[in-house]
Amino acid sequence: MEKLYSEILWHEIVFVAFCIVAIVQLFYYGRFFRLLxxxxxxxxxxxxxHPVSVIICARDDANKLMLNLPxxxxxxxxxxxxxxxxxxxSQDDTRFLLDEFKKSYKGLHIVNLxxxxxxxxxxxxxxxxxxxxxxxxxxxxxxxxxxxxxxxxIEKMQNGYDDGVKIVLGYGAYHxxxxxLNKLIRFETFHSAxxxxxxxxxxxxxxxxxxxxxxxxELFFNNKGFSSINxxxxxxxxxxxxxxxxDQNTNIVIDPxxxxxxxxxxxxxxxxxxxxRHYTTGKFYNPKTKFLLGIYSVxxxxxxxxxxASLILFSWxxxxxxxxxxxxxxxxxxYKSMQKLNEKDLFAWWWLxxxxxxxxxxxxxxxxxxxxxxxxx
Length: 377
Known about the structure:
seven-stranded mixed sheet; alpha/beta; 10 strands; three-stranded mixed sheet; Spore Coat Polysaccharide Biosynthesis Protein SpsA, Chain A; 12 helices
């Protein structure tokens, strides 16, 4: 009798744990993610055109620049802008290619760096030099493997500035291609953006992506640039924003014409290595960010194992009811958010991609303790 009572109690504990995890998930969808799903930008009474410096750091990126740099150079922008490329000790034809581009595009500004910065791994040294050399107060950052989604990228991104705004977060998407890997990469990118854009709308900004990010030089220099994270290989985008963003100085722009597009990795291993480099910086986020992201990730990771355990050990009717409640709300948020970020073709696969996230967290969990790589190329 006592053994039977113990088994019943254990089964109830599993179901209660499943309900708690589902409630945590619903909290994040209701408190944060709905903000992006139903976001409507405020219409400004008058347009603005600030002078802008686009900054691109390149290292042995001649092929990528050949394909993508013209997209930044031919922007339709009525005000002043420059495109500044920092050539960081490239050993390929990057310098010669940039010199050829310079002949046709007078707005191209080239900074050639011949040496490494001792004790400053990663991209922070060339990016700091680029910001220092930039002519204009507003800098707009992207990468050599990125191309603006439209000729109005600069205009749309700089329009995110307003009184008190010093940071504008954009969306860096990936090109749509056939295959499962492309869907996995784009869903992870969407899911990441769902978090950092929604948190920014919820007055808790914590990161941006260097593929499409803008801030003011004043903010950079007033916070001594990357000095506090110079010893880390990464963090020039997410860690820096994590340090300087607050509930008043950050805005987002999610107009499809303001997106950038990147070439996705061709193999699963390449993508895993890319994501591992990113996650090694997560441990350096501020405590509040780590707590909020940690609770969300743990709840996501436990949801499906506890659902299956509840189906088997408790009641399939009650377990399925909780599952359907969470799935219905999640489907609505995903559908609306995917529309906003021009990823709506993924919605047909959202339920499979949602289950995939269990394995995603399982694969990348060790990266939280892995030592960061020392170079950015």
